[in-house]
Structure to design on (392 residues):
């Protein structure tokens, strides 16, 4: 966005006044393009923009973001297994990020690193992208009055229910979303979610109460119809900036169409990275499930929008886990059955119940390779969604 073109004369006047109002602040970036972010985010309401800017600076101080690029050492597991990177620019010269979320083993990552380190690594990547644009204006052909924004391709190929119900990831994502909105207003230009299965809508529904509608409107979701989403990408991105795997002409020097030297492929996190600890059985109930058997637990949900939360682990091995809603004699899948390996750490998750009724949590010990019974320690609850009564 070029402010010299996009802003009206009255908005430019407000921007000058805003500069005077916040002149007492020690800003690392005093460009008009930086100051305008807060006004645009608050529809040029100067008191609200000032409050937002001052709050943002306090958050940067709390999280030591101004020194992050120098002082933060990213955990090796994040560098090696979290798939995210810049491949080029979109047609408006915004940095183009690609993250292969479906190929990233989020459960393994969150078994191997602290939640705060995961969050700070994402902030670290954002700061790195901003710094790259500011330090290389010729490469990004940036004019002084242009807002630094970004376009993201969010690839869901390979996504599973563990990507969209893992409680640690959901908690970290919600906190990150709030930080992002508070610290980087108007930084997001477009997000293209590609290869999105239906379960991706669960994550969208979880995040919606915490993300402003203006930001949600920048998110464009596409299924596995690659002809459709590749055409959409090429409307906004030149082919030479886009990997061949996404419809462009860009490759690695060895011809790899995924450009893995710029964006890693994620992959399964080796258990050698995992934290070692014994899961706590306090305040949990137990079930012994014989081989080739299943147990179904019923939970009444009285309020639409309530959260069904779970925390369970096995004493050994893995088990299939699913959540259903009863509709007469039929069980409607809410969380489709998937095998969970949770003997080294707990499996925590939650799902929003869009309709009241009876919900079934199922543990299934039916597996061709299974030779024994399994003991499950679990804590499952239904809680009202605080976002419904106290939206942000």
């Amino acid at each position: 966005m070029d402010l010299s073109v996009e802003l009206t004369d009255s908005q430019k006047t407000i921007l000058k006044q805003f500069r005077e109002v916040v002149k007492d602040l020690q800003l690392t970036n005093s460009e008009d393009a930086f100051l305008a972010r807060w006004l645009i985010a608050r529809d040029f309401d100067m008191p609200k923009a000032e409050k937002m800017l001052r709050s943002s600076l306090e958050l940067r101080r709390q999280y030591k973001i101004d020194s992050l690029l120098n002082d933060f050492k990213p955990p090796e597991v994040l560098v090696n297994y979290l798939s995210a990177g810049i491949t080029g620019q979109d047609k408006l010269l915004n940095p183009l990020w690609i993250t292969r979320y479906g190929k990233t083993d989020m459960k393994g990552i969150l078994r191997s690193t602290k939640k705060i380190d995961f969050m700070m690594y994402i902030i670290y990547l954002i700061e790195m992208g901003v710094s790259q644009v500011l330090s290389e204006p010729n490469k990004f052909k940036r004019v002084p009055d242009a807002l630094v924004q970004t376009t993201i391709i969010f690839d869901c190929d390979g996504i599973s229910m563990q990507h969209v119900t893992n409680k640690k990831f959901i908690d970290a994502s919600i906190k990150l979303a709030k930080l992002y909105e508070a610290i980087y207003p108007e930084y997001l230009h477009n997000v293209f979610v590609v290869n999105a299965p239906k379960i991706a809508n669960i994550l969208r529904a979880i995040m919606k109460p915490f993300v402003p509608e203006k930001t949600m409107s920048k998110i464009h979701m596409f299924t596995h119809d690659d002809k459709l989403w590749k055409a959409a990408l090429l409307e906004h991105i030149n082919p030479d900036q886009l990997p061949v795997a996404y419809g462009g002409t860009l490759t690695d020097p060895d011809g790899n169409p995924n450009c893995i030297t710029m964006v890693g492929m994620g992959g399964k996190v080796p258990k050698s990275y995992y934290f070692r600890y014994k899961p706590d059985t306090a305040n949990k109930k137990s079930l012994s499930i014989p081989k080739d058997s299943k147990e179904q637990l019923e939970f009444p949900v009285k309020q639409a929008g309530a959260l069904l939360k779970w925390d369970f682990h096995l004493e050994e091995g893995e088990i299939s886990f699913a959540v259903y809603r009863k509709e007469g004699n039929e069980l409607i899948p809410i969380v489709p059955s998937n095998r969970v390996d949770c003997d080294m750490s707990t499996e925590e998750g939650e799902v929003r119940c869009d309709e009241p009724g009876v919900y079934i949590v199922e543990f299934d010990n039916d597996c061709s390779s299974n030779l024994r019974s399994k003991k499950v320690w679990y804590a499952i609850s239904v809680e009202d969604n605080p976002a419904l009564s106290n939206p942000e």
